[in-house]
Amino acid sequence: MDSQDWDDRYAASELVWGAEPNRWVVRELGDVKPGTALDLAAGEGRNAIWLAGRGWDVTGLDYSAVALERAERLTADLPDEVADRLTWRHGDARTFESPEAGYDLVLVAYLQVPAADRRTALRRAADALAPGATLLVVGHDLTNLTEGVGGPQDPAVLFTPEDVLADLEGLGLRTVRAERVHRTVGADSAHGGGEGVAVDALVRLERGAA
Questions:
Q1: 37: helix, coil or strand?
Q2: What are the φ/ψ torsions at residue 190 (nearest 5 degrees)?
């Protein structure tokens, strides 16, 4: 899907992914000390807004202008101390430029693109990590096609934890966690397609301290 396709999808309904943060984002990052964060493919901003509410200074990047307009509207309703920690950028996860200092956290949640594009985006995300920073990648697992519900039905845009590790091989990141996780659809229905259990891939890595 190109940016126009995503614009059309976001324009078709309010809060395509819902307002609540993804459960794996909450589980993995709830106890991490706040710093600077980049939310790649941020969509309407649900995860970025949650991070900002916990004290992070967050840049949310997406290539759908419609999604970002919605994120900005949501931001306008937030308390000033939270809204001031949010910055929205229109851009492509494969080509964005990060500040020289990097980020303390880079989040890539449900960026479902073909393998070559995913690899490019993830390696760019890794390059944006500051020393000691965390990279969290979450998405629909390939096995969700046969073992789960909801999500994209095109295997070309699905991936496994092993795929993510292969994409990032040689970049010096330490693997904290690389696993398949099961999400009950309904409690986090943004990526579901009915009642049941969805299978996600979750990979958490860290850049070594300077």
A1: strand
A2: -60, -30
